[in-house]
Amino acid sequence: MRQIAWTTDLAVGIEEVDLDHQRLVSCLNDVFQATQSANADKPSTTLHDALNALRQQSKEHFAHEEGVMRRIAYPALAHHRILHEDLMTALNVLIDQFDQNAKNTLSSDTMQSLEVWLLHHIEYEDKKIGAHTGATA
Ligand SMILES: [Fe+2]
Ligand SMILES: [Fe+2]
User: Fold this and answer.
1) Spacing, Cα 121 to ligand 1 middle (Å)
2) Distance 86 CA to ligand 2 centre (A)
3) Which residues neighbour 11 within 8 Å (Cβ) at sequence distance 6 or greater?
4) How far is ligand 1, taken at its centre, from the CA of residue 102, in Å?
5) How far apart are the CA of 4 and the centre of ligand 2, in A?
6) Along the chain (137 residues), what's the average pLDDT of each consecutive run of 10 residues?
7) Which domains, ranges and CATH numbers included, belong to the chain?
8) What pLDDT sits at residue 99?
9) Distance in Å, CA 44 to ligand 2 centroid
10) How far apart are CA 30 and CA 125, in angstroms?
């Protein structure tokens, strides 16, 4: 089964942000776990709920992280907010597709894209916030 292991490679060096990211990784792992119990014959409430939990946690995290950026006067806040909006749009599209799909499960391509969706943003964008505070080398 696909699972993401949290490693220090994903740390941005701001504790409250890293804790949020660990929660998001955990939500995503719950989604992957829920695909195990899903099958074509019965709707997967568990998977539906796990996707919605990921969406809710993402929304809260993005708002929290934008607050952190404001607090530290992060210069690229406006751009970063747009990236968050794009991430929420992509997640909403994916969840809508899932809800309309009779298969009630996620393809491995979709799971891969969810993993990239989260990890790429943390590794390439959120780390810049930590670098701005001087928290990371
Ligand atoms: Fe971010
Ligand atoms: Fe983040």
Assistant:
1) 6
2) 13
3) 18, 130, 136
4) 32
5) 16
6) 92 96 97 80 79 97 98 96 96 90 81 94 96 73
7) 17-34+43-133 (1.20.120.50)
8) 86
9) 28
10) 24
> In the 3-class helix/strand/coil scheme, how is the chain assigned residue by residue?
CCCCCCCHHHCCCCHHHHHHHHHHHHHHHHHHHHHHHCCCCCCCHHHHHHHHHHHHHHHHHHHHHHHHHHHCCCCCHHHHHHHHHHHHHHHHHHHHHHHHCCCCCCCHHHHHHHHHHHHHHHHHHHHHHHHHHCCCC
Per-residue pLDDT at 1? 83
Q: How far is CA 77 from the centre of its chain?
A: 18
State the pTM of this model. Answer: 0.91
Distance 69 CA to ligand 2 centre (A): 11
| Residue 126 alpha carbon to ligand 2 centre in Å | 5
pLDDT at residue 85, as a whole number? 97
**Ligand 2 center from residue 62 Cα (angstroms):** 6
Cα 102 to middle of ligand 2, angstroms: 32
